[in-house]
Structure formats: C-alpha cells, structure tokens
TrEMBL record:
Domain Diphthamide synthase: 7-217
Pfam families in UniProt: Diphthami_syn_2
InterPro entries in UniProt: Diphthami_syn_dom, DPH6/MJ0570, Rossmann-like_a/b/a_fold
MF-aspect GO terms: diphthine-ammonia ligase activity
GO biological process terms, semicolon-separated: protein histidyl modification to diphthamide
CDD domains xref list: AANH_PF0828-like (cd01994)
SUPFAM superfamilies to which the protein is assigned, alphabetical: Adenine nucleotide alpha hydrolases-like
Higher taxonomy: Bacteria, Pseudomonadati, Bacteroidota, Chitinophagia, Chitinophagales
Organism of this sequence: Chitinophaga cymbidii
Protein name: ATP pyrophosphatase
Source taxon at top rank: Bacteria
NCBIfam families from the UniProt entry: MJ0570_dom (TIGR00290)
Length: 221
C-alpha cells in the first residue's frame, strides 16, 4: 500500500475505534469517517446511535464524518458510492474496518473497496476475541453497552466495559467481544479523542426482542 491516508468505517463502537487506533499506530493517516444511518437518518444502522453522538466523536478525533441515510436494500450501493467519492475527495488509498473473524464481512468489505479502487484494511483480523477486549481496555478505550439482545437484557444496558463486565458476559455465556451481535458499544473516550463525549440522559427501550438506549435529543436538534 503506497498511500497512507485512510477512511474509517466508523460505527461509534469499540471495534471500529480500536481498528482506527491500530491503523494509526501502524503509520496510516486518517482523513475521514463514514457511517451508515437508517433510512430516516436519525440513528446509525449498526448501533442505533443518534447523529449528534457520532458527530461528537468525529469532532474529538478532528475528522469529518459522512453519515449516509440508507435502506438495507440500497445499503451496498450507497456505501460503495460514498466510499468512492470520499476516497477521491481525500485521495485515500484504503478503508479501515473493525471486523475480527467473520469472513462474509471481510469479503463484502474487500468487494466494496475494490469497487472504490482502494484497499480494505482490517487491523484486528483473526485476533483472539477475549484478548482483543483486554487490549482495548489497556489501550485506554472507554466504552459502554448501548444495545443488547434479550438474553443479556435491560440490566446490561449503560454498563461500562471493564473486568467485572467481561466476567459477567462470560457468566452469561456471551462472547465478550459481542462479535455475534449480542451487544454493541459506544466509545465515550480514547487516547485519540481531544475530550470525552458529553452524554445526554437516556432511557432503556425494547424493540423486536432487542434492548436499546434511547438518547434524549432535545438539546441536540
């Protein structure tokens, strides 16, 4: 890879953040963040995060964030078109993704990057899931569970990732990295942020068998 500039596929959670940090540690240079929102553009597709929290993260990293509203049906086309535009705009040679070991995800990421004329970079690929979580903590990532399945349920929402939570996830027989979709996180601080996020109040809601934090947005029109 000749060009060190990269676009990060940014979910707002721990995996994309740590992949971002690892790419920077390896000498790559971030130029933009890309997130896919639901069709009305109100919350992110992957983690149900409102745009103002993603914008806070982008501001803390000093990078522009492109958040694209999309249906699932048009997801690949919209992602590819946006990635192509951003790569040209920022003269980026790669896109960074936080996937660990799900091959269909990697194949899709390599496909869309090839269509955009850039390289897919997966800094966390095939790392041990549990060791990765401990490495994230040691690297200074602070994150909280913002959504989880019914097996974990309401009590796990809003909890910060730490040794106690890791033990509780293992006791619940859940992958501690959440790689199977058991839970998703929001990074509230990391060493590359200029300041931690300011979090609004939230309430816990259940929708189609999955629990979410629903953030108060009145102060963030």
């Amino acid at each position: 890879m000749t060009d060190p500039r990269f676009i990060c596929s940014w979910s707002g959670g721990k995996d994309s953040c740590f992949a971002f940090m690892e790419a920077v540690r390896q000498g790559l240079r971030p130029v933009a963040l890309l997130n896919m929102m639901n069709e009305n553009g109100e919350i992110s597709r992957s983690h149900a995060l409102p745009a103002f929290l993603l914008q806070q993260q982008a501001a803390a990293l000093g990078l522009p964030l492109t958040a694209i509203a999309s249906t699932w049906q048009d997801y690949e086309r919209n992602f590819t078109e946006t990635l192509t535009r951003l790569a040209q705009q920022h003269q980026a040679g790669s896109a960074v993704f936080g996937d660990i070991d799900l091959m269909p995800h990697r194949e899709w990421e390599e496909k869309v990057c090839a269509a955009a004329g850039i390289e897919a970079v997966l800094p966390l690929w095939q790392e041990d899931r549990k060791m990765l979580v401990y490495r994230m903590l040691q690297a200074g990532i602070r994150c909280m569970i913002v959504s989880c399945n019914a097996h974990l349920g309401e009590p796990f929402l809003g909890r910060m990732l730490d040794d106690v939570l890791i033990a509780d996830l293992e006791a619940a027989e859940v992958d501690v990295c959440g790689e199977n979709g058991e839970f998703h996180t929001l990074v509230v601080d990391c060493p590359l942020f200029t300041a931690p996020l300011t979090l609004p109040a939230y309430r816990k809601v259940e929708h189609d068998g999955y629990w979410f934090l629903q953030w108060e947005t009145a102060a963030h029109p």
